[in-house]
Amino acid sequence: QWILTLITSTVGGVIFGFAAIPRKREQVFAWQWALILSPLWGILFIAFGIGPVVTRTSDYLPLLRNIIGFVLGALVAYLSPMISESSASET
Question: How far, in Å, are 2, 5, 39, 74 from residue 62 at the CA level?
Answer without folding.
Answer: 8, 9, 23, 18
